[in-house]
Amino acid sequence: MSDLTASVLETKNGFHVDGYEKISYDFTFLDGVFDTKNRQLAECYQRWGRVLAVTDMNVFDMYGEQIEKYFQHYDLELKVHKTKIGEKAKTIPTFLSIVDSMTEFGIYRKEPVLVVGGGLVTDVAGFACAAYRRNTNFIRVPTTVIGLIDASVSIKVAVNYGNYKNRLGAYHAPMHTFLDFTFLRTLPTAQIRNGFAELIKISSCSHLATFDLLDKYCEQLIDTGFGRTDGASDEVRSAADKINREGIHEMLKLETPNLHEIGLDRVIAYGHTWSPLHELVPETPLRHGHAISIDMAYSATLANSRKLLSDEEHKRLLNLFSRAGLSMDHHQFDEEILNKGTQAILKTRDGKLRAAVPNPLGSCTFVNDVGVEELSAALRRHKEIMKEYPRNGEGLEAFVDASDTGYTDNNQPEVEALEAAAEEAGNLNGSMNGDVVHGGHVKKGMNGHAHGINGHADAVKEKLANGSAKGLTNGVNGFTNGAKA
Questions:
Q1: Span 226-278, pLDDT tens digits
Q2: Which of 418, 423, 442, 465 has the fewest CB atoms found within 10 Å of its own CB?
Q3: Distance (Å, rounded) from C-alpha 77 to C-alpha 73?
């Protein structure tokens, strides 16, 4: 919610306006947000007597019945807009479909839309709320690691346009964000790993104590959904809670003085210098966490080459990425893409590179005075270093699949088409066929989470979900980038 104060001064040739907008919003840690014993969310809607919820189909398949029972318990009428949102469908047509539901629902100016899902859902639905009557309230319930500890912190909302991430968007704060980490019980391991990258980002540049905990408990955190799955030890659960709370708090402290990104030197932009371009370079996009991990690992090598990061800290950081199964390189991250990414980010950052790098580990420096040859030399060195790591530094389950996009809809022919595409594409750099090596154990088949929802092959590679398999066009059911073909 915002309060606006302003002054208007008459000048010789006109007027001068100074306006100040106070942005105020809340975060509540609440396990079991849709448990009928917890009335906090329902109380936000008592005035209205009804709820318009926007969520993705995967989340609704797993939690829809619980959500419906929750609002029935509090005598609140519920309408659900179920959407398919992935990087390939994070588009204007998807945005407009949410706008249409808001119009059909007859949303009031101050009535909050409920947005339940991962960062992609909250991005697109949040942008719809920002645009609808120029300012419609919303409440966030993030359900993924990235949604909980990264997307929930920012007030940025957006859609992709062309081949560019988040090219169209706004700054629009939610009224309230409920942080319920029990959603991680059913989140696929690939998505846990995906979000782990964001915690490495903030800790390696700003909070060494959190980095130390990630380093100590890496495999256990990923295997147990940050201590939320059955059988997780109290020690791991306690460490996870400390990591999550301190990680969110640190990002809020860094982000809130600069909510509209007026200042362009941003610590939390570590890993976001080249990744906005190369994330979408593969035919099937990289998962966001893997894209920024490649950027972070390369940036660390650049920092090490400049003696900003010691050899010991450089190796420690790379080893943590590797242990987590995160990507540190990709065969399409080459000098051409590096140069294109540099040129693109210079426009975004007002002519300066402003590349955040750890210096030392737990602190941050911004690099500007670096030329094309130095960047290319650092990349060549980085790729040589990657030969010492499994899969030449490429990660596990690095590409988006139907757990990201929601394209499958439990439709067996579509599932088979997606899986056939994955099998046809194979495993890059000699990954094991059919098995996933994770945390020192071999997991057969899928991601191994509740109800089998979101379970997909080891790593969905190129051709998957982009229309290469059996006539699919950026998904299935005739949808092209989120719009009906």
A1: 999 999 999 999 999 999 999 999 999 998 888 988 899 999 999 999 999 99
A2: 442
A3: 10
